[in-house]
Amino acid sequence: MYKATIFYFSGTGNTWWVSDKIEKQLNARNINAEAVSIDSLTDGCRLDTKKADWLIKSSDLLFFGWPIYGSDLPEPMKKFIDTLNPLEKEKHVHTFCTQMYFSGDGAWLYHKNFEAKNLKLDSCAHFLMPSNVSIWHGAMGPPKTQEKTDKILSKCEKAIEKHINSLLDGKAGIKGKRSYPIGIMQRGPYRAFYKRFQDWMGVDTSLCTKCGLCAELCPSCNISLKEYPEFSGHCALCFRCYAMCPVSAVTVRGKTHDKSKHGLPYRIPDKRFNRDLLKPKSK
To answer: 0.90 exceeded by the pTM?
Structure first.
């Protein structure tokens, strides 16, 4: 039986959900598939390279998935790929990204870094998912109704099935390669302001209960719990702390989320998704 491993990074559940659907699609076709969060392979923000190497070498099909931030990869996924040991023999991989509207070359962008590890991209896919940027409340923010969210998810699930069918038939191509100009239009400004974005997160001490969940979930070791959570300025911009805080005490640019006006911050509306899926193994 073929074995497939789907490595993924997910902030608030979108990429977890797509990875889970890919896993189920492959298992239904008698391929032994497993979706693996890269958080489960870290210990104190250090990669367990032995386990990652074993999963890669023992798999017949390899997938890497990530959400797109400003047409760029999240820093934890970049670090994961760049820390992998190069293979002796070339292996083919399939990448996918989750995006709000479009990302240009989001799933293809890191092809040279994969090649440096002797991993060659065979296919790239882009899947439209609901926006998780809960600090926005207009067209760029999360859907305002469950009906709109369900519609996006339904379309995405069909797109996933179509992609897996094409991939297994040898017909899936590299999408996004020709969209580099669109990607750079978003990525240029995003990277230029990235350091500034990393300093946006904070905490409202009048609301904070000192539960420490934000520090437990942080994928970049950006948050330490002292008297109150302290942010170190190297945020991954995944919005986990903002979305998962039980009392909405995490702030962005000094503002907390107004639950009475906007409801809870976005996270994938799937009861199987829980915060334990996001915790690094040492936490």
So the answer is: yes
